[in-house]
Design a protein that fits this description.
The chain is mostly helical. It folds into two domains: 10-186, no CATH class; 205-386, no CATH class. It is built from 17 helices and no strands. It has helices at residues 18-40, 44-70, 76-95, 104-126, 130-153, 158-178, 189-215, 221-242, 245-255, 258-271, 273-292, 300-325, 330-341, 343-348, 351-372, 374-381, 383-386. Helix 2 packs parallel to helix 4. The chain is globular, with a radius of gyration of 21 Å.
């Protein structure tokens, strides 16, 4: 990732290609693997390890989002290199369940390969652009160092391994902001925003999968009600992002130029979309446990995940929208606070009742915004009618 050039030419915009969507299918599998990892070890330690793996996967996907924004990768030898990167990412996804166990070294090596292939592809993009090459040279050391530390972590155990993971992710995430990478990289705003919107949609699909996994083959009344309430929450989460938030953010990104475009893309999308994805994954964990045990009380971590995951998603929205619109979305803030306050209730009530409360809060936030701000909503979604 790197700072954008002062202005973009019209030709820089391009549609999301089938190859990019094909690449994202691997990320779908990786997210499913993270949810399975959390479900198999629903403890605080398991939660920490799952979120560390998710953070690594997100950054690995994110650097390719920047790459494909700079150029159309669905042609020639670059296409083959992208397919090789996809294969390496699939290896990372396969190793997710054992990323802190027997497959720790495999995960680290596969992840390092993903990052090295990205640098090779970036070098191809930058071969005729001195400023891009300079940006890549500034970005490469932290990218290689962070990924290499995950290989080192594969030789360690316990708390030492977790500590190295934390250092590795800190180096990787903070590198572009602390070191700075200049004006060498192009960002196609519409493409970049669409790519992140699609990955949010893919992550929401993981919640749908969680309903199916939790339901299994016994479709009793409790399971059906839990599945219906789960769909209500997932629909609300979809609405909150795609109704107006994604549109407003995309418009702001399209208006930005120069270094501000880079900073906005990096902060609002690369950084602040991670809480959205993490919130969805956590909610999916709580939802899977609820659907599978609709009449029981949730254990501590699944209960926190059910309410806290939805709250984290809303908090991510608040930060994302504040960075792009400079406005605090109060109803989403209140909704997040209420969801966090519901955690003690989720620990005491049957899981189905806890899910009903979460669905009520999310549905209320959506309904209030849609009705209270309906005129502004029309202006955003249908500017031709407002005119």
């Amino acid at each position: 990732m790197s700072d954008a050039e002062p202005e973009l030419e019209q030709d820089d915009e391009h549609q999301v290609t089938p190859l990019e969507l094909f690449f994202d299918l691997v990320f779908v599998f990786a997210i499913t693997q993270v949810t399975s990892l959390l479900a198999d070890d629903p403890t605080w330690g398991g939660l920490l390890r799952g979120m560390l793996v998710l953070a690594a996967l997100w950054w690995g996907w994110g650097v390719y989002a920047w790459l494909t924004s700079a150029m159309d990768v669905d042609e020639g030898g670059v296409r083959l290199a992208m397919l090789a990167s996809m294969a390496a990412m699939f290896g990372v996804a396969l190793a997710v369940p054992g990323a802190f166990g027997d497959d720790a070294l495999l995960f680290g090596v596969a992840y390092l390969l993903v990052r090295l292939l990205h640098l090779v592809l970036s070098a191809i993009v930058a071969r005729d652009h001195p400023e891009r090459r300079g940006s890549l040279l500034r970005f490469a050391p932290t990218a290689i160092a962070g990924a290499s530390l995950l290989v080192v972590a594969g030789f360690l155990e316990g708390n030492e391994r977790i500590a190295v993971w934390l250092v590795a992710l800190a180096v990787d995430y903070l590198g572009p902001s602390v070191i700075g990478v200049g004006r060498g990289w192009r960002v196609a705003p519409e493409h970049f925003a669409e790519r992140h919107a699609l990955i949010v949609l893919i992550a929401l699909g993981e919640s749908i999968i969680a309903i199916g996994v939790g339901a299994g083959f016994e479709l009793g009344t409790g399971v059906i009600v839990a599945a219906a309430l789960g769909i209500v929450v997932v629909s609300a989460l979809w609405w909150l992002y795609f109704d107006v938030a994604a549109i407003l953010a995309r418009m702001r990104l399209m208006q930005a130029t120069g270094l501000e475009l880079h900073r906005l893309a990096l902060q609002a999308y690369s950084y602040l979309h991670l809480p959205l994805i993490a919130g969805i994954v956590l909610f999916a964990l709580g939802l899977e446990k609820t659907v599978g045990h609709a009449g029981d009380t949730l254990d501590t971590v699944p209960a926190v995940a059910l309410c806290g995951g939805a709250a984290l998603y809303l908090l991510g929205h608040i930060a994302f929208l504040f960075r792009t619109t400079r406005r605090v979305w109060r109803r989403r803030t209140i909704g997040a606070a209420v969801l966090l306050a519901l955690i003690p209730a989720a620990l005491a009530l049957p899981s189905l009742a806890a899910l009903a409360l979460v669905s009520a809060v999310c549905a209320f936030v959506v309904a209030y915004e849609a009705l209270r701000h309906r005129e502004h909503r029309v202006q955003v979604r249908h500017p031709e009618l407002a005119a």
